[in-house]
Amino acid sequence: MRRWNGWGDEATVVELPAHGQGFLESRIGAGQVLVDASLEQVLAKVLASRLPAHPLVSVEAEVRVRHARGQSLPDWLAMRSGEFGVFPDGVALPETAAQIRELLVWAQQHDVVVIPYGGGTSVAGHINPRDGLRPVLTLSLARMSQLLEIDEQSLIATFGPGANGPQVEAQLRAKGYTLGHFPQSWELSTLGGWVASRSSGQQSLRYGRIEQLFAGGKIETFAGTLEIPTFPASAAGPDLREMILGSEGRFGIISEVKVRITRLAEEEKFYAVFLPSWSQALAAIRSLVQARVPLSMLRLSNAIETETQLALAGHPEQIALLEKYLAFRGARAGKCMLTFGVTGNRQQNALSIKQAKRLLKGFGGVFTGTLLGKKWAENRFRFPYLRHGLWEAGYAVDTLETATDWANVDHLLNQVEDSLRNALSAEGEQVHVFTHLSHVYGEGSSIYTSYVFRPAASYAQTLARWSKLKHAASLAIVNNRGTISHQHGVGRDHAPYLPVEKGEQGIAALKALSRHFDPDQRLAPGVLLED
Amino acid sequence: MRRWNGWGDEATVVELPAHGQGFLESRIGAGQVLVDASLEQVLAKVLASRLPAHPLVSVEAEVRVRHARGQSLPDWLAMRSGEFGVFPDGVALPETAAQIRELLVWAQQHDVVVIPYGGGTSVAGHINPRDGLRPVLTLSLARMSQLLEIDEQSLIATFGPGANGPQVEAQLRAKGYTLGHFPQSWELSTLGGWVASRSSGQQSLRYGRIEQLFAGGKIETFAGTLEIPTFPASAAGPDLREMILGSEGRFGIISEVKVRITRLAEEEKFYAVFLPSWSQALAAIRSLVQARVPLSMLRLSNAIETETQLALAGHPEQIALLEKYLAFRGARAGKCMLTFGVTGNRQQNALSIKQAKRLLKGFGGVFTGTLLGKKWAENRFRFPYLRHGLWEAGYAVDTLETATDWANVDHLLNQVEDSLRNALSAEGEQVHVFTHLSHVYGEGSSIYTSYVFRPAASYAQTLARWSKLKHAASLAIVNNRGTISHQHGVGRDHAPYLPVEKGEQGIAALKALSRHFDPDQRLAPGVLLED
Questions:
Q1: What is the mean pLDDT of residues A92-104?
Q2: I need a surface site. Which of A79, A154, B38, B368 has the fewest CB within 10 A?
């Protein structure tokens, strides 16, 4: 059963190992445990729905609670405290595009706000209903998760928009294919959500971002259905796919998604390498990607993340041995862990590994074989569960991310880390901050920063701490040539910062499109574009 | 000196060899030579400009003639007959973005239509002034062709929008870089034009289309400057670059272009392989690209194009020897020539060649080494000059192109070829039609079809023949799931066919953007979107 107030399945528990707890205590002090609300307490707060009856709409309290919030830290605090504020007035679970269109007409007739809902994994406030006079319908695509068609010549698969990561991969793997899109939210997030929020997967180096995978589909708008045909490429005017990618539900509801798929590869391997310093590591990863060595994944942890990962790994004796070996080979304090993957045919992989190893050795890289790489692959979707383990130990964790050109990566990374490290200094609180680069391009890199801080004495004060942290980091990003999101989208949390990068003209053009598609501003209002 | 009534530099002459003329005569009959107009005759037809004086605007007759038409076949016939119809009232040659903005304000004050002009190489009627009450200003970016900045860490170069292919490459190569964008129009077409019309280069397999190369820049609109910052990737809402790519001047004038560049490769080689039949060749090229062998170029001629190229090559004895060798190895009548390229480091290239050879041999491929590949590379920009040689021999040649998914490539190719082959049958005229696939993707391929026909007794009748051919092929494309353009853009010639692929909702959204950026419909009216 999916947790109503946290991440993933209740059966999966990831605890903070004792050694990890000691590590955090030494960095930011003893944890502060807050008391959680029960589901019963929350259900008691759900007001009567303002929606008229509709056969496709559930107004049941628990359904409304389970669709009220995403997975941002404010969402987490709301769910843990039970202070949700607003619930949707109802949840629709259509099974066909025709039913989506019917619900849109109905919403118009009854002046209802509609929030499209995929896996409910937004970390930027995409799906939270706002307080207002108009009732709110959350429209979940969960029942539209089928693989509808495969074109095995053109390698295109047609899916319902509500297929989540495991549903996508299971249906494709049964026929020998993969989409190759593995965001960390993969267990719960959906194809439609990936498209709407411009998601990126951990192996985007091979498979591309969702922008490269999304081949076409259907979008239900208030003006009618926008159908985007598939072409391998086209010069016939602006690309309509790119209008929908990142539209975050503001222009319409995606009812069908066609994606580019790949035959399952002959071989896949992941390796870990330690670089003696951040400056060498940064130069190495840039060289690797600019040399176009055909790797499928590259991820570089900075020194503090490397230290934190080893501390939180939970096998102190094994880690001590590893550290000893690395020190002997020249990777001591300040070392940075780089994980890379190859996916493809054996000959090609062998050459890629050989070229990567040669290049990395030139930067002092120390190889540790495939064990740590395998561990990374096994645990790639477990990090979100760790929020529970940390919370129970009295720590709050959040992540944020951006991307920038190589010439600016180090500067921006430092600005973001410093902004977080200092955000609570007026309260005398330490923040533990660490970063990795996980999506690299010839032009630059994503920057993914995690920060651990202590909850305050109350939920409201804890939220205030988060707001300070988030605002400081968001300003650091947009004031230093970073994008406000590389992979999480804009939602409501990032919308205030979007105008810095889109500019006055860019925002005006997007608003013109929003008014064109949705004259009554009924779809996910406040998301992406502030009112 | 650039030709005023045809392609390229006057010093470059490509004649039709005698053998080639015989080949065409055997296919479609003896040529029909029409008499060309002289520049003096055309100059005498230029009416007085309706524009008020402006220091940046030339109203000189010859300048207006030289900016009146592109390179489509109707443009060719207009230039050859001297029947231009409409000339721009003046040509502006701004040197800065500020001057572009000044000209836009001036155009608004005096109710002037503005046509952005790059290299004047459109083959779809992008730059032709229309008859109308408002005077027409053609705004050429030719004086804004400098490399302004290189970020060597992020591999981003900033150019003026008017830099043409040789200017781009010369300025980059001096520093060890390449853009790698080589459309057939490369000698004359410009960076700004490539962006505005979604161009694709011959080595897009390695370097990507202009969509992948365009990193950001500035666009001058009537509402102000739209500045698009560079990010390696972003999830912050719809991508504004994609709004400008393919906008064909309808939303604004590109005043600065930032592109992703690449260090010059260690090695580049091209090979020719002959496949015994079209069906084997088609299967082979699809396998190659879907196997993700890192090649930099793939081009497959169908049997008639292969035959035509060998006939027009002009060395009958050498070709006879080649044919003998190929026949001995199993590639006889119906054989198809495939050219492929590798660009990169030697080790990687060696593996790519090995894998490509092995795969192609499985489809009956016969290798001929690098000589024909070298010839292709040497002559890659000469094909447009051949229009002159053919014209002087009494033949008209035109090309058109589309793209579709692999499952549909053979069907669409046949539909397009048949539509052209039969378009003049009521007049009893034969049309010589041949095709290649030049841009291949995992999902599908471009289809590039050339057709040679005889001019009629007059220019007007010749244009009528072309209209029949073009309309038949355009209908065949959009009625059979092809895009109306893979690399040439929409312009005015393809605009009537665009609604089939964009749909009612798609066209309405693009029109909303056009009205947003250009409320008076002053920029390139009729281009991309019909009035």
A1: 98
A2: B38
Residue B338 domain-assigned?
Answer: yes
CA atoms within 13 A on the CB side of A353: 20
The answer to whether residues A86 and A132 belong to one domain is yes
User: Is A209 part of the contact surface with chain B (CB cutoff 8 Å)?
Assistant: yes
Q: Give, in order, the Cα–Cα distances in Å from B511 to each of A509, B518, B521, B531.
A: 12, 10, 10, 9
pLDDT tens profile A11-26: 999 999 999 999 999 9
Q: What does the alpha-carbon distance between residue A193 and residue A473 come to, in Å, rounded to a whole number? A: 25
Q: Which two tokens stand for residue B1?
A: 């000196």
Q: Give the residue from B199, B202, B234, B507 with the most A CB atoms within 10 Å of its CB, the best one to mutate.
A: B234
- Note whether residue A17 is domain-resident: no
Cα-flanking dihedrals φ and ψ of residue B35, to 5°? Answer: -85, 130
Helices A316-328 and A303-312 cross at an angle (nearest 10°) of: 140
**A392 in the same domain as A303:** no
Q: Which two tokens stand for residue A199?
A: 């998601």
Domain assignment present for A299: yes
Helical H segments across B313-458, by residue range: 316-328, 346-361, 371-379, 383-392, 406-422
Per-residue b/e over B380-410, b at no fewer than 16 CB within 10 Å? Answer: bbeebbbbbbbbebbbbbbbbbbbbbbbbbe
**Given the residues B448, B451, B459, B497, the one annotated as active site:** B448
Nearest chain B residue (CA) to A157? B443
If one counts the domains in chain B, the total is 1
Token digits for B189?
A: 């077409």
pLDDT digits (tens, 9 = 90+) for B135-151: 999 999 999 999 999 99
Cα nearest neighbour of A287 on chain B = B153
Say which residues have a Cβ less than 8 Å from residue B389's Cβ, sequence separation at least 6: B13, B14, B15, B16
Q: Are A234 and B355 in contact (CB < 8 Å)?
A: no
Separation between Cα atoms, residue A246 and residue A255, nearest integer Å: 15
Interchain CB contact of B530 with A (< 8 Å): no
* Strand residues in B152-240 grouped as ranges (E): 156-159, 177-178, 214-221, 224-228
In 3D, which of B96, B97, B65, B98 has the Cα closest to residue B83? B65
The two tokens of residue A363 are 């930067």
Looking at CA atoms only, how far is residue B264 from chain A in angstroms?
11
Give the distance from residue A453's alpha carbon to the nearest chain B alpha carbon, in angstroms.
Answer: 26
Distance (Å, whole) CA A427 – CA A465? 9
Average pLDDT, consecutive stretches of 10 residues, N- to C-terminus, chain B (531 residues):
96 92 97 97 98 98 98 98 97 98 98 98 98 97 98 98 98 98 98 98 97 98 97 98 98 98 97 98 98 97 97 88 93 96 97 97 94 91 94 98 98 98 98 98 98 98 98 98 98 98 98 98 98 91
Sheet of A214-221: strand order equals A147-151, A156-159, A253-260, A214-221, A224-228
Is the pLDDT assigned to residue A314 strictly greater than 90?
no
Would the pLDDT of A315 be above 90?
Answer: no
Please give the residue of chain A at the shortest CA–CA distance from B287. A153
Indicate if A257 and A271 belong to the same structural domain.
no
Query: For residue A134, what is the domain's CATH number?
Result: 3.30.43.10
Write out the binding residues of A for substrate.
387
Q: What is the ipTM of this complex?
A: 0.97
CA of A177: how far to CAs of A152, B75, B123, B405, B483, in Å?
9, 48, 40, 18, 27
Q: Pairing between strand B90-92 and B136-140?
A: parallel
Residue A328: give its domain's CATH number.
3.30.70.3450
- The predicted pLDDT at position A245 comes to 98
Q: What is the pLDDT of residue B369?
A: 85
Domain that holds residue A322: 267-380
The residues in A 471-490 lying below 8 A from B, measured between CB atoms, are 481-490
